[in-house]
Write a structure and sequence with these properties.
The chain is α/β, with parallel strands linked by helices. It contains six helices and seven strands; from the N terminus they run βαββαβαβαβαβα.
Amino acid sequence: MVAVADKVVMVTGGRRGLGAALVDELLARGARKVYSTARSAYTDDRPQVVTAELEVRSQASVAALAEAATDVDIVFNNAGILLPAPLLTGDFEDARTTFDVNVFGPLRVARAFAPILAANGGGALVNMHSVLSWLAGSGAYGASKAAAWSLTNSLRVELAGQQTQVVGVHAGFIDTEMVSAMNLPKATPAEVAARIVDGLEAGATEVLTDDVTVATKAALSGPVERLTFPTAR
């Protein structure tokens, strides 16, 4: 179990949406410092927040951040991208970008920060997935989140020896800019952030943030044709 109080935390994609809510929640629970990243420079007036530019598609950018943030105890891989399109007819470069951000981005960050976490006592790595990790019909986004789920499960095994807690987070729809066009019930970013940090501090390896995600996970043992995103049916 990793308590947040007095820890140094990094949140990728911390400028807005769920990332911003995570920064708020971490500070409320006593984090000593929070590195909050975005693709472009921005400012945050709170003294505990250190903003940083990060492009998760760039190995050089990730390495530069790791060199500057050697005091990190907990990493939240939150940065992600959604480019809606069918797999067969959508722009192939958009699919490639989706995987580069949502799968290889967290892997780049994990590889860069694993030695830092080890040097600082183990800490935790928290990866953001989605209920769409388990549901067909959401194009490259769902496929990338399924891959990210597998990535996290393997990282958990590989990082166990250095006592790093690896947490995979699955969430339904959150009221953020990413899914603003979808007319579906949504949780607030603050609600989801609180549940994620609750799970981290309770020693969870997987956090399911809402009833839809719990029900979908339970359905994985059933017929695969039932595992379809509703709007794709």
